[in-house]
Amino acid sequence: MDIEILVKVTSRAWSLKVLALMHEGVPGRQAPLLAASGASRTTFVHSLCHLEDLCLLERNPGHGHPPRPEFRLTPAGQRLAPIAHQIETAVRDDTGAILLRKMWTVPLLAVANRPKVFSELKRELNPITDRALSKSLRELNNQNWIERSVNVELHPPRPYYQVVNEGAQISHAIGLPG
């Protein structure tokens, strides 16, 4: 999977969840998807429209009603939905599910598949800001999805970040080359 697509998809909170639910066979109508996700209606609709704009979902012609359309996965969405499902099933608790909906969590886990310093992570996740990256790293470290280690043999000492535990499972599901 391309990191740019991953950043675009995760920029809306419920996009991965929608793809995962459709992969599981939840009907592509708003009511069943909304009920299965537990999202608020407004943010959920924004995620559906976002996925449609990214050409991962399309309106099913001849089905649904204009205010309540039925959606189906496009070929690109069909390739991404199993990955979204693997990401969603790797998370075991509510705190992790909330963290997974944040914009930079999944892309950061994808690129931290081997030890990297802050500047490497920032370069790979362009256009992330320093503040967003440091906040995301702190949250992922607190969740025990990223491990921070410091190489004290270098001068000055350099911290390295790498996925661990559930973070490693999510990173493996995405499958970006190291």
Automatic annotation (TrEMBL):
Residues 1-99, 81-178 form the HTH hxlR-type domain. Gene3D superfamilies: Winged helix-like DNA-binding domain superfamily/Winged helix DNA-binding domain. InterPro entries: HTH_HxlR, WH-like_DNA-bd_sf, WH_DNA-bd_sf. SUPFAM superfamilies: Winged helix' DNA-binding domain (SSF46785). Keywords: DNA-binding, Transcription, Transcription regulation. It holds the Pfam family HxlR. The keyword DNA-binding applies. GO terms for molecular function: DNA binding. The keyword Transcription regulation applies. This is Transcriptional regulator. It comes from Pelagibius litoralis. The lineage of its organism: Bacteria, Pseudomonadati, Pseudomonadota, Alphaproteobacteria, Rhodospirillales.
